[in-house]
Amino acid sequence: DTGVSQDPRHKITKRGQNVTFRCDPISEHNRLYWYRQTLGQGPEFLTYFQNEAQLEKSRLLSDRFSAERPKGSFSTLEIQRTEQGDSAMYLCASSLNGGEQFFGPGTRLTVL
Amino acid sequence: QQQVKQSPQSLIVQKGGISIINCAYENTAFDYFPWYQQFPGKGPALLIAIRPDVSEKKEGRFTISFNKSAKQFSLHIMDSQPGDSATYFCAASIEGTDKLIFGTGTRLQVFP
């Protein structure tokens, strides 16, 4: 399969724990995006990378959130000290030079 | 000014009918207007997109109508099919940025 993949697909954690999600973009895509989607809402932009450089971060990305793309390929999104309000679907997308964004299936996070 | 307002929230259409979803925006710097389709448990997938230099774009049964002066655009699904039942999101982005601003979504149900 050559699409965007995300792991895990589901994550249940207790409040205060740290979680990390992984995204593998389409192999030739140089740009990678993270979005967050809550129930009944559209995706909200969090951040994006061109190769390994993080070019833009939303104000939604508080200090507890950090994203990396160390080798310009896969990316990780870490949430520290999770809160119930972090419960959402975290979507990753990739594109070639800012063209069409292809989305992965998402990681659904539930914070108890 | 960064919002994209979408209506209706839900839509029920009979098979063979026309589904119409509307979006409105305020920011005249938006220059790319895609529509995404999302099935349960999946990430959004690009359906069709338009730029402000044209007033209409058609791909198969899907048509975007764009009214630059009114700052509105809409998706028309002709001959709607049960397989079209999904959530549809309009979005917009500003020239020179990759950040997509999504509407709140329309849940479409097509009954046979």
Strand coverage percent of chain A:
over 45%
Rg calculated over all Cα atoms of chain B: 13 Å
**Level of helix content of chain B?**
under 10%
Mean pLDDT of chain B: 95
Order of helices and strands of chain A: EEEEEEEEEEE
Find the structural class of chain B using helix and strand composition.
Answer: mainly beta
Total DSSP helices of chain A = 0
N-C termini distance of chain A? 33 Å
Number of helical segments with 4 or more residues of chain B: 0
* Biggest sheet features of chain A: 7 strands, mixed
Order of helices and strands of chain B: EEEEEEEEEEE
Based on CA inertia axes, which overall geometry of chain B fits? Answer: globular
End-to-end separation of chain B: 40 Å
Low-confidence stretches of chain A: none
Shape of chain A: globular
| Helix share bin of chain A | under 10%
Report the biggest beta sheet of chain B as strand number plus sense, adding barrel if it closes.
6 strands, mixed
The largest chain-to-chain contact, stated as pair and per-chain residue counts, equals:
A-B, 24 and 21 residues
Low-confidence residue ranges of chain B: none
User: How large, in whole angstroms, is the Cα Rg of chain A?
Assistant: 13 Å
Task: Give a brief description.
The complex is a heterodimer of chains A (112) and B (112). By secondary structure, chain A is mainly beta.
What does this structure look like?
- The complex is a heterodimer of chains A (112) and B (112).
- In chain A, strand 5 (44-50) and strand 6 form a beta hairpin.
- Chain A contains no helices and eleven strands.
- By secondary structure, chain A is mainly beta.
- Chain A has strands spanning 5-7, 10-13, 19-24, 31-37, 44-50, 53-57, 65-68, 75-79, 88-95, 102-103, 107-111.
- Chain B is built from no helices and eleven strands.
- The model of chain B has no long low-confidence stretch (mean pLDDT 95).
- The A-B interface holds A 4, 31, 33, 35, 40-45, 48, 56, 58, 91, 93, 95, 98, 100-106 and B 6, 34, 36, 41-46, 49, 89, 91, 97-105.
